[in-house]
Amino acid sequence: MPKTILIADDEEMIRGLVAATLANEGRYRLLQAKNGGQALEIARQEKPELVLLDVKMPVMDGFEVCSHLKADPQTREIRIYILSALTQESDREKGLAVGADGYFTKPFSPLALLEKVTEILGV
């Protein structure tokens, strides 16, 4: 059974790149959200195994989405990796402080992302 991954990013090009990187594997069911509100709603409904979450998004930023998901007993076990162009150590620390399981910076290597997702989900 494929693992479900939610890709949340307001940039269609980034969502497309991440989806193309992971879709070729056939091991993942991919969902997409174009803003933080949509990401929160989809994550609560679908309960994916992994959320790849941008920080700077409309409606609600990724830090807020992460905080809400980790505070909710129904979604706190979802693994969340921030995928952001924010590269400062303080950004990384904030992401981990709100409950993110890891932080991946843009620009990213599709191969490195695929390896990380495989490692996280064990498939």
Describe the structure.
There is one protein chain. With 123 residues, the chain is of the alpha/beta class. It has one domain (3-118): Rossmann fold (3-Layer(aba) Sandwich), CATH 3.40.50. It is built from five helices and five strands. The chain has helices at residues 12-23, 36-46, 62-71, 89-97, 110-121, and strands at 3-8, 28-33, 50-53, 79-84, 102-105. Strands 2-1-3-4-5 form a five-stranded parallel beta sheet, with helices on both faces. α1 links the parallel β1 and β2. The chain is globular, with a radius of gyration of 13 Å. The termini are close together. The relative contact order is 0.19. The model has no long low-confidence stretch (mean pLDDT 93).
Under CATH at level 1, the class stands as: Alpha Beta
Largest sheet: 5 strands, parallel
Radius of gyration: 13 Å
Overall shape: it is: globular
User: Per CATH, which architecture?
Assistant: 3-Layer(aba) Sandwich
SS class: alpha/beta
Could you give a short description of this structure?
This protein has 123 residues and is of the alpha/beta class.
Present the secondary structure layout.
Layout: E1 3-8, H1 12-23, E2 28-33, H2 36-46, E3 50-53, H3 62-71, E4 79-84, H4 89-97, E5 102-105, H5 110-121
List keywords for this structure.
123 residues; alpha/beta; Rossmann fold; globular
